[in-house]
């Protein structure tokens, strides 16, 4: 639920930066990448480490990431938070940072993430917990969990592999406009459909990349934000909701808790889907983009497949979605939510170059944690949207 007292536009994201991305140098740790991201985000907005008194962090490779990051940077913050709910942690950190700033617990908060999953090897990064209801069947997780959701959507609504492939192609077209994207070669519908099957109906091109990377955001009060280097991306609305942990306990494989988190964020922002200029959603798999477009209200439930056809979410389409190339083609260092926020901030600033959404005053950034388990939504706006 939206916390009482949190005010629309009371805080803003003023700094945003990635660490090194793709495949990082040998010996780099996740805390190295977090620290690198924090220093770059502070330089982005013109603040210094001495200004930071709130630290938020999540990571799959660190048991106490906010404490480890504080030690690494030599910080003794007034407030710190290591809330961990997978890839949606960072949207929740934005909401928690706003609550802390409004409560006077801190003034300048950094939100950080880092992962070396590509260079360390995925099996060495996050060993899976034994689940007595799923593990004996030896699913290819997380792909098999999302494949179940895709198969159910196909059965219930007539969605097709071709429609999911449109999502992968659109992401690649956006990535070709992003010099920082990992994938730099064109991708056709036919190539997606012909690529190696991972867990039916999802091919390798329906699945996110496996990369290293990290980054950080800087959040402060709206009053302080107006005096800093970059145009503020004001936090207009936030929301979060959970529905299950394991996919075998998901009540309806075609409906996620993004319905609840999105509704909370829209209510706080005083906006509706038609008011959003840029849509940045967690795309670990093509099916997640489709489900979140439906559950965040951009099309009716069951219509996602038809909604994304004919380049509708690609450059030049009717709705700009995942404009950096997304986890499918830009990069996916394990928990992708922070990068969704970074791209939303840059779109609000008008700083995206060739991929810039014209006249972008509002952007939605939606994070997914677990296997469609924990959903968190942030709506950002430029000064004109206040």
Q: Compute the number of structural domains.
A: 1
Mean pLDDT, to the nearest integer, reads 95
Summarize the biggest pleated sheet: 9 strands, mixed
CATH topology tier name: Peroxisomal Thiolase, Chain A, domain 1
CATH level 1 name: Alpha Beta
Strand order of the largest sheet: 3-2-4-7-1-8-11-10-9
TL;DR of this structure?
The chain is α/β, with parallel strands linked by helices. It has helices at residues 30-45, 65-73, 89-102, 117-120, 122-125, 143-157, 161-175, 189-194, 222-225, 258-269, 286-295, 304-307, 326-329, 337-349; strands at residues 11-18, 54-57, 79-81, 108-115, 197-199, 202-203, 213-221, 233-242, 278-281, 362-369, 374-381.
Q: Explain this structure to me?
A:
- By secondary structure, the protein is an alpha/beta fold.
- Helix 1 crosses helix 2 and helix 7 packs across helix 11.
- The chain has one domain (about 10-120, about 210-385): Peroxisomal Thiolase, Chain A, domain 1 (3-Layer(aba) Sandwich).
- The strands form 2 sheets. A 9-stranded mixed beta sheet has the order 3-2-4-7-1-8-11-10-9, sandwiched between helices. Strands 5-6 form a two-stranded antiparallel sheet.
- A hairpin with a 2-residue loop joins strand 5 and strand 6 (about 200-205).
- The radius of gyration is 19 Å and the shape is globular.
- It is built from 14 helices and 11 strands.
- The mean pLDDT is about 95.
């Amino acid at each position: 639920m939206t916390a009482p007292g949190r005010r629309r536009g009371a805080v803003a994201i003023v700094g945003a930066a990635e660490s090194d991305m793709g495949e990082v140098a040998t010996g780099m740790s996740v805390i190295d990448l977090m620290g690198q991201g924090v220093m770059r985000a502070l330089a982005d907005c013109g603040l210094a480490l001495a200004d930071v008194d709130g630290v938020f962090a999540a990571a799959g490779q660190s048991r106490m990431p906010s404490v480890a990051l504080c030690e690494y940077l030599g910080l003794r913050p007034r407030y710190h938070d290591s809330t961990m709910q997978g890839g949606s942690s960072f949207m929740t950190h934005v909401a928690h940072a706003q609550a802390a700033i409004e409560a006077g617990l801190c003034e300048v908060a950094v939100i950080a993430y880092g992962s070396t999953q590509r260079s360390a090897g995925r099996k060495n990064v996050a060993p899976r917990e034994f689940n007595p209801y799923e593990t004996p069947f030896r699913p290819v997780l997380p792909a098999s969990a999302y494949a179940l959701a895709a198969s159910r959507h196909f059965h219930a609504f007539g969605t097709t592999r071709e429609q999911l492939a449109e999502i992968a192609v659109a992401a690649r077209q956006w990535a070709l406009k992003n010099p920082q994207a990992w994938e730099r070669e064109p991708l056709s519908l036919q190539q997606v459909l012909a690529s190696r099957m991972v867990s039916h109906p999802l091919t390798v091109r329906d699945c996110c990349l496996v990369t290293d990377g990290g980054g950080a955001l800087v959040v402060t009060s709206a009053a302080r934000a107006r005096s800093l280097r970059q145009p503020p991306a004001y936090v207009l609305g936030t929301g979060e909701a959970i529905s299950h942990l394991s996919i075998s306990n998901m009540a309806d494989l075609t409906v996620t808790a993004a319905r609840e988190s999105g509704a909370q964020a829209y209510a706080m922002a005083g906006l509706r889907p038609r008011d959003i200029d840029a849509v940045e959603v967690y795309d670990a798999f093509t099916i997640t983009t489709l489900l979140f477009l439906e559950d965040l209200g951009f099309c009716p439930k069951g219509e996602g497949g038809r909604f994304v056809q004919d380049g509708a979410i690609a450059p030049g389409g009717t709705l700009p979605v995942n404009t950096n190339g997304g986890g499918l083609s830009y990069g996916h260092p394990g928990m992708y939510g922070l990068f969704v926020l970074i791209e939303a901030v840059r779109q609000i600033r008008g700083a995206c170059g060739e991929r810039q959404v014209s006249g972008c005053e509002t952007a939605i950034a939606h994070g997914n944690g677990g296997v469609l388990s924990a959903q968190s939504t942030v709506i950002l706006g430029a000064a004109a949207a206040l």
